[in-house]
Amino acid sequence: MAEQLVTTQIDEGVATLTITNPPANTLTMAVMTQLEAAIGALIADPAVKAAVITGAGNMFVAGADIREIAGLDSAGKGRTVTLKGQGIFNTIEQSPKPVIAAINGLFCLGGGLELAMACHIRVASERVRMGLPEIDLGIMPGFGGTQRLPRIVGASKAAELILTGDKITGVEAKAIGLVNKVVPEGEVLKQAQGLAKKIASKGQAAVRAAMTAIGHGLTAPLAAGLQKESELFGGLCETADMKEGVKAFLEKRHAKWQDK
């Protein structure tokens, strides 16, 4: 029986995925395969409304497995591995359910940071060190780092981090917009789960529509994004949740969502 490297726990509509591959929770192909399956399962599970990804112990994810990278001795092998990783991280980014990275521990590097950037929201530890140090191995980020980092922090800052391989603190990451929140180490998972539960408590018809609009707008021109937003808003006007939400507001009570 295969070793369980990615586990899932569900509580109050929130799935917490924990990567357990000591000592550094490296993203081996075995970990990536189990992560792909876990993400697919939570997307398909109607009981799950939001998800959190974290690492076991005192590490989020320190990066890819260097021994596996050493075996990539041809262009074809390199393309195969990166396309697999990109596909998994694309699934996370395109998930109709929000995914939050709980960036705990000492390091979030390389593929670990690329995983975190594929998530929709990032909560980081004050002491974590983050970066894309692939340049020091004579390679470059291959799981989306060269594409997502510029979109998040801007092209100039992304170029600096990618080309130097420098590591930054959680506080520095927040200052450049790479993470949403920075909290004490012991609070990372709790804060991420709390944020996920808050989102899970909302009407899911509206959450799904908002997620679709945000995702569409990242790749579409503004005019097309606005058109999509209008279509989705119009659709929500015919939902039971919209009627309940407005009624609850006027009656000064909590809404009882039907998620439809």
Explain this structure.
The chain has 260 residues and is α/β, with parallel strands linked by helices. The protein has 2 domains: 195 residues, 2-enoyl-CoA Hydratase, Chain A, domain 1; 47 residues, Lyase 2-enoyl-coa Hydratase, Chain  A, domain 2. The protein has 11 helices and 9 strands. Strand 1 and strand 2 form a beta hairpin. The longest helix is centred in the first third of the chain and has 19 residues. The protein is globular and about 60 Å long. The N and C termini lie far apart (40 Å).
SS-derived structural category? alpha/beta
Mean pLDDT: 96
Report the CATH superfamily of the largest domain: 2-enoyl-CoA Hydratase, Chain A, domain 1
Portion in helices: 40-55%
Question: What's this, in brief?
Answer:
With 260 residues, this protein is α/β, with parallel strands linked by helices. The chain has 11 helices and 9 strands. The chain folds into 2 domains: 6-200, 2-enoyl-CoA Hydratase, Chain A, domain 1, CATH 3.90.226; 204-250, Lyase 2-enoyl-coa Hydratase, Chain  A, domain 2 (Orthogonal Bundle).
